[in-house]
Amino acid sequence: MKKADDAIRQANRNALPKFLLIMFCAALVGGAFGYCAAAFGLDRLAGALKQTGEFFSLYIAPWILLACAALQPILSVPLYRRAKKRFAAWDGEDEEVFNQMDGTLSIVLWLGGIFNLLALFLMGAAYAGPIIQDDRYLSQFLVVLLSFLAVLAETLLIQQRVVDLAKRMAPEKKGSIYDIRFRQKWFESCDEAEKLLIGQCAYKAYCANSTACLALWLIFTLSALFFSTGFLPILAVCLIWGVGQCAYSYWSIKLSATRSYIL
Prior knowledge:
By secondary structure, this protein is mostly helical. The protein has helices spanning about 1-40, 40-90, 95-125, 140-170, 180-190, 190-225, 230-260. The longest helix is centred in the first third of the chain and has 47 residues, at about 40-90.
């Protein structure tokens, strides 16, 4: 027991200087930001940010969203066809070819997720401006709406093709992309190695999400302090952060009690 206590204290001593250094640097950055804001005036900066946001929502976001609708099939379809062509020539045993196909399909799904998130952001950014209230911007409104629907439809159709090809590659896989329980069925049909890989990736994603939420909380807290942006951005980040924390803790307690996490 004494050795364990000594090891714990030593670990804390080793980690404490780095932690204090990070806190000191964060305080310096915060102090510098506050000084610059006070010295150069918040009103002008807030006004400039508002004008920039309105310009982005009216003249940039709609056309980036239209570009996303055009780029997604241009980037994703050739990759899907490459994987499909390899599958047609596959002997069903070469693991290297299988891994190449699987990696290509993963990239297609990754691209779909990125374009989907971009579409959600750009639509929200566009509608945050005066695009709806003013009839002069009807063309931008239609571009945003139609481009957003196009990205969603493209993502769904491409994901369906990818999942169908993955099921042909591995016939034991179950589930349809249109099934609301698709994720659960797909996970249940994975073998032990795949479930372990999913768990490792989920943990990495959880850590990245927690770090991102902490950074966003800091940004939105400072913006509320200096630019009067309100508490809603902070609430949104904390809700996302809280859902991740609670879900992780809930399943950790539940699975640890039942030991059903053992593959």
